[in-house]
Write a structure and sequence with these properties.
The structure is a homodimer. By secondary structure, chain A is of the alpha/beta class. In chain A, 47% of the residues lie in helices and 11% in strands. Chain A is built from 13 helices and five strands. Chains A, B: Residues 41-264 form the Polyphosphate kinase-2-related domain.
Chain lengths: 287, 287
């Protein structure tokens, strides 16, 4: 763990939150704060602000490197039940990074054209270029989540998709993409309260859709679909992290940490100039 | 002027910075701070933070409205000489808004495919959808700026482009796009110092290109091209604003103000729910 990590964490959340063999989603306490050493919000706010600066510099190094041929990039995949806080992660964690370094895409229900292709076709078109942090708000995982719950694909097709996803992600990793997959976990009661809040507030009602309640009624089936997806597709090349998200500040801190950790592993350096610095200074001075 | 405006401005920068008949770029003092009433940086920092919250809420209302059929959107066009601070505006002003509400595109030298089409072809593909704030880092104006300086088009073709741009922007405005065009203005000496700083700092060298000095040698010709572009294309539907940018904090404050002002003129309201709120509360309560 780096200096920043030590200040705010008792134990490395990258390790604590990672989905490994034997993982059971039902065992995750959505209100817990694994690894965080502060007991109060103030400490979390300080940790968030410091983390923002660290993440920002790392992102700029990644971007700078790509201008000199470094092909590496990062892909953050966000999945969650409605109201769990994907939007807040995008706004507060992704939003703390220079927008020029981000490629964000929110996947909706597939269009007719997209449905005419294999399920990874539309995903390939939204991958980040070298030097960028790609962010998927929902992703190809919908094709083994809502697709399973709503029986939008045959059992054999669903079964095949886990393998196709593993291969796809392995290929991305081989080509230089660091993949960080995050599921934000809340409890069913908390979702109910959050949906009720959307109905209660004039500035939140626009986020509510009557269909949200229909999906909510399938809560247990979704949890089973998540359990399966997590255990079948958490690989060394593309691990899943399940982040307890009832405390929003914790979820933001943890996801930021996961991004910082992924970028630190790349051991990024400022690129060395491909031109003669002294000669350029002389040219510039003469103008 | 709204409450926020009155706190930080003596006079409305939207009016002060706007390019009108008789405008002369050479008369702009790049180190000035038109309209700002604070003498110290602290006041500017407070103004920036307060403005960020205001802008953030306005953007969310714009986005929310689009989910209920409001077709309006905003387009911020950024043009400037190298090092004038376009990147800083994107990072600090655009970056203070929820990334989900932004469509950012940085135009580079046109590709072979792009050159095979008319100069507005590639621009049309990057326009913001309803509810979004589009941001152009460079734009179709390069086709009357570098194209004029470097003689990449015939004099007749260049002359025709001003009219094509006016028509294009009028059409966008008629379709519900509020266009804000910003030129960040620095002085030649300041550019020299900023380029020298890039050469001096290991974390900045990656931003330097030897070609920057070649463009710099054409400073006066660029200023003439800007003068022409500003006077030919600042229209009621798509006005230009020239923002003095030697003081970075001022440029950020002013551009944020221009965006806030553009959004306030839209008189945005939170959309009214298209469903029966009481019935939805009852359905949700029953789950």
């Amino acid at each position: 763990m780096g200096e920043l990590t030590k200040k705010f964490w008792n134990d490395d959340p990258t390790s604590l939150l990672r989905v490994r063999g034997g993982f059971r989603l039902a065992d995750v306490d959505p209100g817990s704060t694994p690894g965080f050493n502060g007991v109060d919000r103030q400490n979390a706010d300080r940790a968030l602000a410091e983390g923002a600066r660290v993440l920002s510099t790392l992102q700029e190094k990644l971007f700078a490197g790509s201008k000199f041929g470094d092909a590496r990039r990062v892909l953050l995949v966000l999945q969650a039940m409605d109201t769990a806080g994907k939007g807040g992660i995008v706004r507060h964690v992704v939003g703390s990074v220079d927008p020029q370094g981000i490629r964000l895409y929110a996947f909706k229900a597939p269009t007719e054209e997209e449905r005419a292709h294999d399920f990874l076709w539309r995903v390939r078109k939204r991958l980040p270029d070298a030097g960028l942090i790609g962010v998927f708000d929902r992703s190809h995982y919908e094709d083994v989540l809502i697709a399973r719950v709503r029986r939008l694909a045959s059992p054999a097709e669903l079964e095949a998709r886990y393998g196709q996803i593993r291969e796809f992600e392995q290929q991305l990793a081989d080509e230089g993409t660091t993949i960080v997959k995050v599921m934000l976990q809340i409890g069913s009661d908390d979702q109910k309260a959050r949906l009720m809040e959307r109905l209660d507030r004039a500035d939140k009602q626009w986020k509510y859709h009557p269909g949200d309640v229909d999906e909510r009624m399938r809560w247990d089936t979704y949890q089973e679909a998540y359990q399966l997806a997590l255990e079948r597709t958490s690989t060394p090349a593309a691990p899943w992290f399940v982040v307890p998200a009832e405390k929003k500040w914790y979820a933001r801190l943890a996801v930021r940490h996961l991004l910082i950790d992924a970028l630190e592993r790349l051991a990024l350096e400022w690129p060395v100039a491909a031109f003669d610095v002294a000669a350029e200074k002389a040219r510039l001075a003469a103008t």
